[in-house]
Specification:
Elements lengths: L2 H6 L3 H13 L21 E2 L5 E2 L4 E4 L11 E2 L9 E7 L1 H16 L6 H15 L21 E8 L6 H4 L7 E4 L14 H11 L8 E3 L3 E3 L4 E5 L7 E9 L2 E17 L5 E4 L4 E3 L6 E2 L14 E4 L8 E15 L4 E18 L7
Parallel strand pairs: 9-18
Antiparallel strand pairs: 1-2, 3-11, 4-18, 5-6, 6-7, 8-10, 10-15, 10-16, 11-12, 12-14, 12-17, 13-16, 17-18
Helix pairs in contact: 2-3, 2-4, 3-4
């Protein structure tokens, strides 16, 4: 049996039948917390003005953005992107019947909903009311109201931070039932799971500013080695957690970023970096580079740079970028690696035309 998925694909009927369900009350709720470790948001389910219970809002905690926007981590893998959409628990059987039946009636009564579109809407109604199903998509009798409390209907959720509208709308399957304690059917690989939560935590993660300590500080001299370093106390590993907690379904994932190297870009070609690659690796104690100490003015810094030309009346924009190694752990012992992330800052450096100076 072809079923409504094939009939509805690409038609106005699918959009009309599901518009309110998928867009009016998205399961995703933005508004994560600030970047302080341990900060959290309260995004538990609640009722709207109609009394319909909207569940499966994602709760963020740890070092994440405050307003639901994308964090400041840039993936080192240009081909990696966060999930554009996913399927998540939405409504119990009785609430889903109320919501979906209203949407179907509204679509049926919309002017011009005849022919193929009208047939498609009718088949959506049969799917949920009269046990009308097709391959891998069983039908339901009266919206499964006799199983209310034993599971939930899951629906597609858009990632509001995904710029591509086609990708954002790609989780467009009809809502489906999942029993409490069960995993979603395998034909829904986008169903929310710890791995997806880990990627969302990555997307919202906020890394600390990267301002290196310099000696000389801010103002240096032509041909004078400038030492650069980051103390372990200045930066450390960062964590962000994403969780879903609804009756019968509770999962979470924590994404951890650990600093592994610092890259220095002097802001001009008239400079040398130490080491030559400009990449300073992390030390055994978790620091990067080595603080300058009296008597080292003639030594080559393990991490630093040397400007070969004065900055004149202006400054050079020294960019310091930390590479973070990112991994995750989640419910049930799941875990793995995510692409390395980077985040950097610029700081102004004045270079004066003086060949020698006493420190």
């Amino acid at each position: 049996m072809s079923g409504p998925r094939r009939i509805l694909s690409g038609t106005a009927a699918l959009t009309l039948a599901l518009s309110g369900l998928l867009l009016a009350q998205p399961a995703y709720a933005a508004g994560p917390a600030g970047k302080d470790e341990g900060a959290s948001t309260e995004q538990s389910g609640g009722g709207d003005s109609t009394g319909i219970h909207a569940a499966a809002k994602i709760q963020y905690s740890g070092s994440v953005t405050k307003n639901g926007s994308t964090g400041n981590v840039t993936s080192a893998d240009v081909n990696w992107t966060p999930p554009p959409c996913w399927y998540a628990p939405y409504l119990g059987a009785k609430d889903f019947k109320k919501k979906m039946s209203e949407e179907i009636e509204q679509a049926k009564n919309t002017p011009g909903m005849g022919g193929t579109a009208g047939t498609a809407i009718g088949q959506v109604q049969q799917h949920y009311e009269d046990d009308y199903g097709w391959t891998d998509h069983p039908g339901y009798k009266d919206y499964n109201v006799d199983k209310d409390g034993e599971g939930m209907f899951w629906a597609g959720v858009e990632n509001p931070n995904e710029p591509d509208v086609l990708k954002r709308n790609s989780c467009n399957e009809l809502p489906f039932w999942v029993e409490n304690g069960d995993t979603p059917p395998p034909q829904y690989p986008e169903a929310i799971k710890p791995e997806i939560l880990a990627a969302l935590a990555y997307q919202h993660m906020t890394l600390p500013d990267t301002k290196v300590t310099l000696a000389p500080a801010a103002t240096t001299k032509v041909n004078l080695p400038t030492w650069a370093w980051l103390d372990k106390a200045v930066f450390d590993e960062v964590q962000a957690t994403a969780a879903v907690n609804v009756p019968g379904f509770n999962i979470q994932a924590t994404t951890t970023a650990k600093p592994v190297s610092l890259k220095l870009e002097p802001g001009t070609d008239d400079a040398q970096t130490y080491p030559a690659s400009g990449e300073c690796t992390i030390n055994a104690d978790g620091s990067i580079g080595e603080p300058y100490a009296k008597g080292k003015s003639d030594e080559t810094p393990p991490c630093g740079l040397k400007y070969l030309r004065s900055s004149g009346d202006g400054t050079y924009k020294l960019r310091a970028t930390i590479t973070w190694q990112i991994s995750w752990t989640g419910t049930g012992g799941a875990g793995g690696d995510l692409p390395d992330g980077t985040f950097g800052n610029e700081q102004a450096v004045t270079v004066q035309e003086i060949q020698a100076v006493n420190r």
